[in-house]
Amino acid sequence: MTSKSLLSTLVLLAATLGACGNYSNEDLEYMNAIPARDDMSANMPRSNLLPANEAELSRDTHAVVKAFNGALDFLTAADTIRTYQPTTRITDGRIWGPVPTDDHPGWQWRFRMTRAPAAPEMFSYWFEIEPIGGTEADWIPFINGSFVTTGGARRGMGHFFMGADDLRNAGYGIGPDGDGNVFKSLDVMYSTAAYPISVSMVLVLYPKGDLTNMVTITYHYEQQANGQAGMEFEGTDSTTGASLGVASRWLATGRGVAEATAKDGTGAGTTWTECWDDSFHSVYDNKPWAIAPALVTTGDPALCPEIPSL
Amino acid sequence: MRLGPKLALVALLAAVTAAASSTARAQGLRRFAIVAGNDTGGGDTRSLLYAGADARKVHDILTRLGGVRQEDATLLIGASASQLLSAIVAVEMQAAEAKRHGERTALFFYYSGHAKDGSLRLGETRLPIDGIKARIASSPVDVRIAIFDSCKSGSMTTTRTKGARKAPAFEIQADGPRDAKGVVILTSSTSDEDSQESDAIGGSYFSHHLASGLLGGADRSGDGRVTLFEAYAYAYDRTVADTAESAAGAQHPTFSYDLAGNGDLVLTDVAVRHEGVYFPREAPSGVYFLVDGKGFVAAEISKADGVDRRVALSPGHYRVKRRLPDRLRIGDIDVPRGQMVALAEARLRDAPFADDPVKGAGRVDLTSRWSLGAGATYQSVFAAPSGASLFPPTGMLAVDLSLRNFLRKDWVWSLDLAAGSANGVVTSVGAPFKFSEISFASSLVVEWPGRIVTPYVGGRLAMLLMGRTFTDPQSAYPAQFFSTLSPGLVGGAAFRIMDHTSLVTRGRLHYLFYNVGEDLSLGYWELAAMVSYDL
To answer: pTM for the full model?
Structure first.
């Protein structure tokens, strides 16, 4: 080794020994691609009314918004991950963990992200769980997803799938929700690239814990920058039992309108329209299949807000 | 009347031949020293470069070889008139206390600096020459020796009329019934001459030769002790010889004395430490320069044929030079602690004049001195492949501490500390952040001192501590940090705006190794301006 190359080596060695830290733009880009619960949550002003005093379709919408956001509770873990630096930096990837799970002793989780070298704007990720001491092959995917960034803070389009069957079969207990339903899967597509942001969700549950039966619930939510938002969902008419396709829209103040179209049974093909004010009191109600003594129409349609369709 | 230098020499030569130098007589004399040097003399004078260095050299000799205890020696560099007077008062009190205990006392007063219009100039303060003379003359010290190395300092001796005795004019008996009492004043030039400094020797001619004489060069008697007379005579001869051809004309040191009693005052005892260089009797005659490891002329010894010389030098490495008409004789010698090393002619080799270790490159300051600077720096990292938003351009406040001429002549070693912050945005994820940086660095530069402008270039090694916090609470990103060693180059210039103050501008170019997630060779540049004050 010549004295010149020796000097160069020593300089590089000194710099390498002295260089350390977690200062990384690329880490941020990985963290930015992790889905955030707030980005996908539905926002509807809360109602302080007793359920009996609230417009019926407003009440149904509030219930659906609660269920929609509840389905995203699984993303709380992802929100936590974003606050930590990655544990391991690999080529074109980052790994957080493994970390023992708080509520399942004997199990551990890790969150793994990669990005395509040829398409660095696209990130793929896996949230995986395995028994502590397991091998690489023992990791069970719980969430897998992808995100294509369009630049900016969590701006882009993403998709993730959450499936509980493999975990449950491996002995990782997942209990029922408050209604006794057991989670099977959640499939979410979302876009935060520009307004309106949109989230489409397909939630599959085992009703009352019956693993031989499944209920599929779909939601579609959109929101404008000014807080105006809307939710499309499926419901059941409380009086006729008919299936309804509901499109509910509201302003940032809470004032809104919902249109429920009967898919079958009495009034099939007709649409029930209800409007409410900022206090969620009904100001206009037109329900074609209303049965006396209930009135078909109450209130003034002029009081309905002008909210474009989603 | 003033004793002219030539006449004085004749008288002193006669005196020394008549005097029996006795070490015993020098013993029992409590010696005090006040050594002052001040490069500045106020707005109507041009800064000197070596007054402080000369004072340090004399102080070192007196405490090392001159029998002055460290606690009895006061060194004043850049002091004001009041500080100098305070030092004199303090020494007088010490001397009075010593006398109460039956000790005889001597005061060695040395001043190197400006003198003009009847006053010593100490920075912006003045001390009337008549006043300082009167003060020294009235000091309650048995023997007072005052040496003034300043322009037209011969005026210090013009009112003295005593002392034109042929013999024993310079003998000061330190004990017995004829113990000397009185005042001796040496000056570096006559009342109408300038006292000159030399860049080549790194000091004033007079002080340089006086110091060389005290180190042993003046030991004409060869007894290992340098008396006041020997030192003066040596300094006189060498100063006149060195300045005879100078543009300012020959410089003639003077002396006057007003003594009662007689004796011979030994100023330095070269043999006491038995440490230095010994020039044997058979060594060729000539003027030998002993240059220390920093390039300073530690001693300049004029050796005659058939005599030997001992030069008391501090342990260290020295380059020896003797100049011949057509070439130099150069060699190296190491002086171990506690050893007197004989210089054999065989140690020297022929060398061309171009290899002269005593070059004298312009008006340079050869004294080691500290300076403290403060200012502002602007730093910008070159755009990186991973995005220019990695490290944002940052303004920083900086302080630095520099030491000049310590490692080597014209080398400046500095430590600097800077801190600053800036706002930035990681554009790829739209995350605003607050960036903070602290740098701690050491640099070594070579400078080319000039009267007004001093350019410099060198190398620097910086430890960078950088961090950022993300200011958008929605982002929830954790704080990040990075530290690295960063080598670089530095260059700039210092512009002297006042005696002790310079305006410094500089640029830096640094390599920045970044290794978080990927290895990147980055770089950054800096521009800075600061005010530097010589301590």
So the answer is: 0.55
A84 touches chain B (CB under 8 A): yes
Task: Classify the phi-psi angles of A154: left when phi > 0, otherwise alpha if psi is within -120 to 50, otherwise beta.
Answer: left
A chain contacts of residue B466, beta-carbon cutoff 8 Å: 21, 23
**A153·B472 Cβ contact <8 A:** yes
Cα separation, B292 vs B320, in Å, equals: 9
| pLDDT one-digit tens code per residue, B303-317 | 888 888 889 888 888
Q: Is residue A156 part of a domain?
A: yes
Q: CB contacts < 8 Å between A and B, how many?
A: 103
Question: Tokens representing B436?
Answer: 């903070």
Q: Is residue A110 part of a domain?
A: yes
Domain total of chain A: 1
**What chain A residue is nearest to B517 in terms of C-alpha separation?**
A89
Torsion angle (degrees, nearest 10) of CA A262, A267, A273, A279: -80
Residue A34 domain-assigned?
Answer: yes
Instruction: List the single residue in B429, B478, B481 with the smallest CB-CB distance to A84.
Output: B478
Interchain pair B484, A25: CB under 8 A: no
Asked whether the beta carbons of residue A17 and residue B485 sit closer than 8 angstroms, the reply is yes
Chain B nearest-CA distance from A252, in A, is 20
Q: What does the alpha-carbon distance between residue B203 and residue B206 come to, in Å, rounded to a whole number?
A: 8
Residues of B with Cβ-Cβ distance to A11 under 8 angstroms: 487
Q: Enter the tokens of residue B127.
A: 């001390």
Average pLDDT, chain A: 87
Nearest to B475 among A12, A22, A153 (CB): A153
Give the confidence band of B173 by pLDDT, cuts at 50, 70, 90.
very low
User: How far is the C-alpha of A44 from the C-alpha of B489, rounded, in Å?
Assistant: 60
Q: Is A117 on the interface with B (CB under 8 A)?
A: no
Q: What is the ipTM metric for this complex?
A: 0.74
Q: Do B516 and A27 make contact, defined as CB atoms within 8 angstroms?
A: yes
The string of pLDDT tens digits covering residues A50-105 is 667 889 999 999 999 998 998 888 778 777 888 889 999 998 999 998 999 988 99
- CB-based contact, A151 to chain B, within 8 Å: yes
Determine contact, residues B120/B34, Cβ cutoff 8 Å.
no
pLDDT recorded at residue A149: 86
- Among B185, B221, B204, B368, CA closest to B300: B204
Please indicate, yes or no, if residue A270 is contained in any of the structural domains.
Answer: no
Domain that holds residue A88: 2-43+70-193
Q: Is the peptide bond before B478 cis (omega within 30 degrees of 0)?
A: no
User: Tokens 């769980």 appear where?
Assistant: A129
CA dihedral A52, A56, A58, A60 (to 10 degrees): 100
Average pLDDT over residues B193-217: 82
For chain B, list residues whose CB is within 8 angstroms of any CB belonging to chain A. Answer: 386-387, 389-390, 426-431, 463, 466-468, 472, 474-478, 480-487, 511, 513-518
Can you tell me which residue has the tokens 């006042």?
Answer: B498
Report which DSSP code applies to A303.
G
pLDDT, tens digit (0-9, with 9 covering 90-100), for B298-355: 888 888 888 888 898 888 889 898 888 788 888 989 999 888 898 888 888 888 777 6
Cβ pair B480:A16 closer than 8 A: no
Q: Would you give the DSSP letter of residue B418?
A: E
